[in-house]
Design a protein that fits this description.
The protein is mainly alpha-helical and 184 residues long. It has helices spanning 15-38, 47-75, 87-116, 142-174; strands spanning 122-124, 128-130. The longest helix is centred in the last third of the chain and has 33 residues, at 142-174. It binds protoporphyrin IX containing FE (2 copies).
Length: 184
């Protein structure tokens, strides 16, 4: 199986890939924090409407960024992994990256179904809207089911991100290889 085939830059991810990675990382961690915060708000809190508006808008941006990153990755494959990685580590990194992409795609889609379950469009920063597919819930409690899935996927994503960060730091500080510097 071809794992992370070498790209044009053999040492580091190219500048655009690095920019997208760190933008995505900041956005996803911010969205998760905002998501957990906003579900604790009560009707009279000044952020009651603003926080979900921002969450949905930035969530759509994260979806766009991940799509751009994925298309860019197809055009410019990542540099070969550090030679010091064992085959098992390469396989694990390969699957963690693909699972991260999978979750980064379907998490915003589940969010879209929470918002649009009853026919509401998704308003993105008041600039444009993404219409709902259904005018009324095609199955009972679609909003709740999508909410349950959204929470579950967010927990899976955060668990995987924690593993991913631990891996990056381990390679940098313990193995002292170039895994992290390739992304800096
Ligand atoms: C929400 C946070 C994050 C997400 C969603 C995320 C996602 C990803 C994804 C999808 C890749 C694969 C890139 C590709 O090959 O196309 C990647 C690579 C990488 N990430 Fe992250 N990342 C996050 C945070 C971090 C942090 C905080 C670090 C620092 C320790 C980090 C270090 C790296 C490194 C070093 C690579 C390259 C690994 C390799 O090529 O083997 N990431 N990240
Ligand atoms: C990477 C992107 C996203 C992340 C990491 C994320 C994360 C979260 C988290 C952690 C929660 C709290 C869940 C709970 O405690 O029940 C949440 C709630 C929510 N998210 Fe997202 N979200 C993302 C994208 C989106 C998008 C694109 C939308 C809509 C278009 C959206 C709509 C919602 C809604 C409506 C809630 C409130 C659910 C409820 O009231 O139970 N999210 N999100």
């Amino acid at each position: 199986m071809a794992l992370e085939t070498p790209g044009t830059n053999p040492i580091r991810y190219n500048g655009f890939a690095r920019l997208l990675h760190w933008l995505m990382a900041a956005l996803v961690l911010g969205l998760a924090a905002l998501g957990f915060y906003m579900v604790t708000l009560t009707y009279y809190d000044p952020w009651y409407r603003t926080a979900p508006d921002l969450h949905r808008s930035f969530g759509v941006i994260s979806f766009i960024l991940v799509t751009v990153r994925w298309l860019w990755r197809k055009k410019q494959p990542p540099p070969a992994m550090s030679g010091s990685l064992k085959p098992m580590e390469k396989l694990a990194a390969h699957w963690v990256h693909h699972l991260l992409y999978g979750l980064l795609f379907i998490l915003p889609i589940s969010g879209y179904f929470i918002t649009t379950a009853k026919g509401d469009a998704v308003n993105v920063f008041g600039l444009f809207t993404i219409p709902a597919i259904f005018t009324q819930q095609p199955i009972a409690n679609l909003e709740d089911i999508a909410g349950f899935i959204h929470l579950g996927l967010a927990v899976c994503l955060l668990t995987l991100v924690a593993l991913h960060i631990a891996g990056g730091l381990k390679h940098h500080f313990i193995d002292k290889d170039d895994t992290l510097t390739r992304m800096l």
